[in-house]
Automatic annotation (TrEMBL):
<dbReference type="Pfam" id="PF00348">
    <property type="entry name" value="polyprenyl_synt"/>
</dbReference>
<keyword id="KW-0479">Metal-binding</keyword>
<keyword id="KW-0808">Transferase</keyword>
<comment type="similarity">
    <text>Belongs to the FPP/GGPP synthase family.</text>
</comment>
<dbReference type="InterPro" id="IPR008949">
    <property type="entry name" value="Isoprenoid_synthase_dom_sf"/>
</dbReference>
<dbReference type="InterPro" id="IPR000092">
    <property type="entry name" value="Polyprenyl_synt"/>
</dbReference>
<dbReference type="GO" id="GO:0016740">
    <property type="term" value="F:transferase activity"/>
</dbReference>
<dbReference type="InterPro" id="IPR033749">
    <property type="entry name" value="Polyprenyl_synt_CS"/>
</dbReference>
<protein>
    <submittedName>
        <fullName>Polyprenyl synthetase family protein</fullName>
        <ecNumber>2.5.1.-</ecNumber>
    </submittedName>
</protein>
<keyword id="KW-0460">Magnesium</keyword>
Amino acid sequence: MTDSTLALPVVDAALEARLVDRLARVEELLAGHCQGRTAYVSEAATHLMMAGGRRFRPLLVLLAAETGSHPEAEEVHTAACVVELTHVASLYHDDVMDEAALRRGADTANARWDNHVAILTGDFLFGRSSELTADLGPEAVRIQARTFTRLVEGQILETVPPGPGEDPLAHYLEVVAGKTGSLIATSARYGAMFGGAEPEVVEALSAYGEIVGSAFQLSDDILDVAAESADSGKTPGTDLREGVPTLPVLMARASTDPADARLLELLDADLTDDALHTEALGLLRSHRAMAEARDYVVAQAAEAKAVLAVLPEGSVRRALEDFADVVATRTA
C-alpha cells in the first residue's frame, strides 16, 4: 500500500491518486451535510464525523465505481456520503446503547451532552442520509430502506439471546451480517451502480461487500482476545469482560472436551473481576477456538475473492482482493 491514509491497500499510483482526490471531495461534502439550522445542531452532528475514522465505506463506494464507465460521476460522491452518514448516525445510537464514554478517542455525544441529544443527532444524520438517497432515485431509496432495516434488526438481535434450539453461532453471524455486512454490501453496490458497472458486476461487488464486512467484524472479535496491549488499538479482552459473545468465545463454548471445563466455567462467570478475567483471557488465547476462528475468517476472505472472478484482472480487482486478505490477517 502506497498511502497509509487509505483504508484499502492500493498499489497502483494512478488509482490511488484518484481515490485520494475523490475521498477529499467526499470529506468536503460530508462537512456540509452535517450542518444544521443552528450552531448547536451542527456541533453535535459534526462531533463524531470529524473525530476521524477509516472512511472505509465511502472509499469502497469510490473503488467499486472504478469497475464502471463513469467512476467520477457526482452520484458516486453522493452515494459515498449516504453510506458514511448512515454509519456515523448508527454510532451515535450504538454509544447510547453501550453507555460508551469514548469513541475514536473523543467523548461520545451521550457523554458530552446526554442520551437525548445523542439519539436525536443520530436521527438527524439518518435524515440527511435519506435526503441524499432520494436524490439518487427510487432504486437507491429501496436499497437504502432494506439496508437500514437489516442494520436495525441486527442491532435488536444483538440484545436478545438465541431462541430455543437456535445455534448461538448462527445467531451471532446473523447479527454481524445485519449490523456490519449489510451497509458495507450497499457501499460496494452503490459504487458499482452509480459508476456504471454491468449488472453482474454490481451483484458480485454487493456479495463481496457483505462477506468482507462481516469478516471485518469477526477479525475484531479475534483481536479482542489476541491483542497483547492497547498498542494494537484494542484493549485486550474488552468484549470478554463485558460478556459479549464473539466468534472465538462461541467456538470455545461449543467444546465438549472435559479439559475445557475451567474455561467454560469462567465464560459463565462475572469477568469484571480482574483475576477471573485474566485467567479466562489466558485460557482462551491458548484454546484451539482461536485457530478455528482465524481459519473461518480466512475462508471468508477466500470466498469474497472468489466472487470477484467476474471482474477483469487489474488494479481495482487486486485492491479488492488485497483488502480481503488484510481483513483476514490484520493485527490492528
